[in-house]
C-alpha cells in the first residue's frame, strides 16, 4: 500500500476488526471528532471495523473526506452474515478463555496471600 500512496500517513493496527480499543482506530476516531478532513484508504473494510464501518465512513464524509476500499470483493448477504457470526463466536471464545486465565491468576494470587488455601483445580 505504501507504494501506491507514498506520501500518505499510515496508521497501523494489530488486532481484530471487532476490537474498538485499538490505538490506531482510536487515533482515527479522535481526528474525526476534531473535524479533520482526510482520505481514508483501507485494504479491506473488515480490517477497519467488522461492525460499524458505515458509521466511520459517514463520519469521514461529514468532515468532507472520503473512504477508499482497495478490496472491491462483493459478498452475498448470506456470506456476510456467516462471517459476522464466525467473528462473534471467535471473540466470545477468546473472552471465555481470558476469563478462565484471569480466574486461575486470582486463585494463584489468593493462595500466595492466604497460605494453606488450596485451589480448586
TrEMBL record:
Superkingdom of origin organism: Bacteria
Xref: InterPro entries: Recombinase/Transposase-rel, Resolv_N, Resolvase-like_N_sf
All copies of domain Resolvase/invertase-type recombinase catalytic, residue ranges: 11-101
Gene Ontology terms for molecular function: DNA binding; DNA strand exchange activity
Pfam families reported in the protein's UniProt record: Resolvase (PF00239)
UniProt name for this protein: Resolvase/invertase-type recombinase catalytic domain-containing protein
Organism listed in the record: Dulcicalothrix desertica PCC 7102
Amino acid at each position: 500500500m505504501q507504494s501506491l500512496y507514498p506520501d500518505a500517513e499510515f496508521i497501523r493496527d494489530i488486532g481484530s476488526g471487532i476490537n474498538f480499543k485499538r490505538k490506531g482506530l482510536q487515533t482515527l476516531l479522535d481526528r474525526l471528532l476534531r473535524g479533520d478532513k482526510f482520505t481514508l484508504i483501507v485494504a479491506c473494510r473488515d480490517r477497519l471495523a467488522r461492525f460499524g464501518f458505515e458509521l466511520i465512513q459517514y463520519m469521514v464524509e461529514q468532515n468532507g473526506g472520503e473512504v477508499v476500499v482497495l478490496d472491491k470483493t462483493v459478498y452475498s448477504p448470506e456470506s456476510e452474515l456467516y462471517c459476522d457470526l464466525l467473528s462473534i463466536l471467535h471473540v466470545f471464545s477468546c473472552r471465555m478463555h481470558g476469563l478462565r486465565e484471569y480466574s486461575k491468576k486470582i486463585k494463584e494470587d489468593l493462595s500466595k496471600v492466604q497460605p494453606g488455601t488450596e485451589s480448586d483445580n
